[in-house]
Amino acid sequence: MAALGLVVLLAVPFYLDSFWLQLGLFVLATAVAAIGLTLLLGQAGMLSLGHAFFVALGAYGYTYFASEGSADRVGLGLPPALSAVLAVALAGAAGLLFSPVAARLRGIYLGIASLGLVFVGQHILVNAESLTGGVNGRDVPGFSLVGLSFEDVPGQTTYVLGVPFHREERLWYLAVAVLLTALVCYRLLVRSRTGRALRGIRDHEVASAAMGVDIVRYKAYAFLISSMYAGLGGVLLALAFRRVIPETFGMALSVEYLAIVVIGGLGSAGGAVFGAVFVASLPSVLERYMTQLQGSGAADAGGLTPAVLAKFVYGAALVLIVLLEPGGGAALARRLRRRRGKAGKPSTAAGSAEPVPPAP
């Protein structure tokens, strides 16, 4: 199944148009950032409502490091690959600075404290115009790696097996590679000593401390790694959108990431990917294919627009998933595997009689 999924991901750019590729890039970027939150909430048991702040640091950090300075905008003009690494490091440093607060708070109190990061970030993004572009945002520089540019060149089109490869097709493979690397790193971390310590802190913090686990240090690890995942997702998000604006990284984005990890299943990287596909793509897909359900009048005349109808369907789907399968997509996958395992076991009916013991 994993090999089949990889083949499908590699073949996607050859069959889908720009709309689906653009939506797919958004989903892949969201999945990378969601893995960081599922590590923090599902493995360490630390609630964070400030995930959008660290995503914004990755997006705006890459834009600042890679952009050339001008009369009204500041920038360092560094190579794009180095800029991406520095943006991820910037988000990680911010998470490490917040970790002392996280080590002293738990539950909803930690969630409220982390939510303050989003409000502080919004204030900075709107008012630091020379750095962020203010309310109108800022254009994102193109990406290149070892001399390979991922941007379109006017008058030049690259063909692969007869299919034109534009910016979206190239970025698709970059985002897939980043997501696969993020999944492998998550799996190695969860199976390591650090992962076991984080789960011990989640299940019983006092008992873990009594066994010698450094609570403050491991909580700092969790916030550091989670914020780096968020920063990496922010870099991909900026490349997918081509322009970053403060409105994108508000409180609604933090709530969206929380919904992703709950729907996917707390602590499951695969569940985070499933939740990202569902939450990030469903509104756009519904809005595209439900135009025929639009009311005869305009929105101000009482007609139900596809965008509003999509929000109703999206909200109802979230409620149904949480009610029918509280464990999310990960629990559903485990249930299906158990059923498949039971179906594959050999029967002990006729034809499989027990061996007869030897005569004395």
Structure description:
The protein has 360 residues and is mainly alpha-helical. The protein has helices at 2-11, 18-43, 51-66, 80-104, 107-127, 129-132, 167-190, 193-203, 205-210, 215-241, 251-264, 269-289, 306-324, 328-344, and strands at residues 138-139, 144-145, 148-149, 158-160, 163-165, 243-244. A two-stranded antiparallel ribbon has the order 1-6. Helix 8 crosses helix 10. It is globular, with a radius of gyration of 23 Å.
What's the SSE blueprint?
Blueprint: H1 2-11, H2 18-43, H3 51-66, H4 80-104, H5 107-127, H6 129-132, E1 138-139, E2 144-145, E3 148-149, E4 158-160, E5 163-165, H7 167-190, H8 193-203, H9 205-210, H10 215-241, E6 243-244, H11 251-264, H12 269-289, H13 306-324, H14 328-344
Antiparallel strand pairs: 1-6, 2-3, 4-5
